[in-house]
Design brief:
It contains eight helices and four strands, in the order αααααββααββα. The chain is an alpha+beta fold. The chain has a domain at 2-101 and 128-171. A four-stranded antiparallel sheet has the order 1-2-3-4.
């Protein structure tokens, strides 16, 4: 089942970032609170602060973020075959579990001359993705012992989901360190956490191999 281990690596190389909408309350903007609201909505499923910032309901905020996350997951499998819609849905739930492993603390923000803010975020890196290939190898070996082969229906999604679960179960954290990200103000005066900045945080909390 080596090819499935390789396919898992390809899937996980693709970004899991989902865009965060800018805060419309620029007149009394609090960069630390905005950063916490974005992170809590993205990783902890806590939508109230993010919804208040946007002036929408919690249900609307939840729908916006969850639909974006599901689309980002589905897009990963455009480069892969051998997985059903049910398998993708199961993988989405596993990746929500991965999100909940995120360890971060918003420390402080500093205003810049151009109106932007730098925000210090302390993170503790999870090794969940660093152990995925090893987990996939172990799961594949277990399935081979059970008489499973690569041609069996649903085998790729089985290897994928069970490998992620194994790495979740064995997750450990590295030493905490600080990442500085920038929250910028666009031409309309709305503060935005750019994709590149969120990508850096994601990579810090969930480093690959």
């Amino acid at each position: 089942m080596r090819k499935y281990i390789e396919k898992i690596a390809v899937v996980l190389m693709l970004t899991l970032f989902i865009g965060m909408t800018g805060c419309s309350k620029a007149e009394d903007f609090n960069a630390e609170a905005y950063m916490k609201d974005c992170m809590d909505a993205r990783y902890r499923g806590e939508y109230k602060g993010y919804a208040d910032c946007l002036g929408i309901s919690e249900d609307e905020a939840k729908k916006q973020i969850e639909e974006s996350f599901e689309k980002s997951i589905a897009a990963q499998f455009e480069v892969s075959d051998g997985i059903s819609e049910e398998g993708i849905a199961a993988y989405v739930e596993k990746m929500r579990e991965v999100n909940r492993l995120a360890k971060y603390e918003i420390l402080e923000a500093a205003g810049m001359e151009d109106g932007s803010y730098t925000v210090k975020v302390q993170v503790e890196p999870s090794d969940v993705f660093q152990t995925l290939e090893k987990s996939a190898g172990e799961v594949s070996s277990e399935l081979i012992v059970q008489g499973k082969t690569e041609s069996d229906p649903g085998i790729f999604e089985t290897v994928l989901c069970e490998s992620v679960q194994k790495s979740i179960d064995g997750n450990t954290y590295g030493s905490p360190f600080i990442v500085e990200v920038t929250v910028t103000k666009d031409d309309s005066g709305v503060y935005v956490l750019e994709e590149m900045e969120m990508d850096r945080l994601e990579a810090a909390m969930f480093p690959g191999e």
